[in-house]
Amino acid sequence: MSAVAPPARGEEREATDNRRDRRKDKRPELSDRARHEQRLGQRLVAPAVVIMLLVTAFPILRALYLSFYTYSLTSPEDRAFIGIDNYVTALTDGLFWRDIGVTVLYMVVTVAIELVIGFAFAMVMHRVVFARGIIRTSILIPYGIITVVSGFAWQFAFTYQNGFINGWLPGISDSFNWFGETTPAVIAIMVSEIWKTTPFMSLLLLAGLAQVSDDMIEAAKVDGATWWQRLWRVILPNMRAAIMVAVLFRALDAYRIFDNIFVMTSGAVGTESISFLVYRQTIEQFQLGMGSALSVLLFLSVLLVAFLIVKLFRVDLAKARGEG
Fold this sequence. Notes:
The chain is an all-alpha fold. It contains 15 helices and two strands.
């Protein structure tokens, strides 16, 4: 039996191009109205983009420039070019990776809890009929409080000298020091962060709930779907874009957590985040070179987090808006 000859490279390339062309043909073409809206949106957002680039470009480029130098404000005349040594030092230091781990822990735990509680609050604000304005205002009040103020309030609440948390929780001694060890201190910081920012999560989810058609929910109810089935098969799938936006915004904000840590523990007992590490190197120790390198790494890690969240949800926002 004669062997079948493998296809030539030209044929393989032609077949690949044909498959790519078929995929392009399957993409829905935008209507004239959709293209007009896209162009209008680009023109409207262009001034803001230009201003943001002008405001942020110099600090970013300056930080990138300084990250290649050993530069301390205590001896500015000793500044010297060292290439990527600052990055190598940071990436090979256990403190950097420990702070990254603590930061990821803050982000994952707080965002997960806020998503659940925020969705419950959003359901209440969406469905409540009696005193709707009062209830919505009451839920959103914590988000209107300055983070530093809420941090001081929760620090006072968790102190064993005159706080009330130890007295409220069963099984906790009145003399228990929440800020004496890593785990309870991290929990206290998470509680203050969750209390402060859950209203923001609920506000974003409320906007998503408003996009879910009542007709679909009623149709599912007529078909005999239970409340749980309506939630998982009707409400949540149609809120996917809103959930992604809420998680994305809050995750990026939680990843850069600083205020609560600064107020409640000052980074002690292993509660330091990557943002606080940048602060210590730049502001407290005047190491602008290392601080700039850490800020660049923080910026890149924020981009990575955003990329992973967008890939995880796989939401086409254009389709979510009803285009195509």
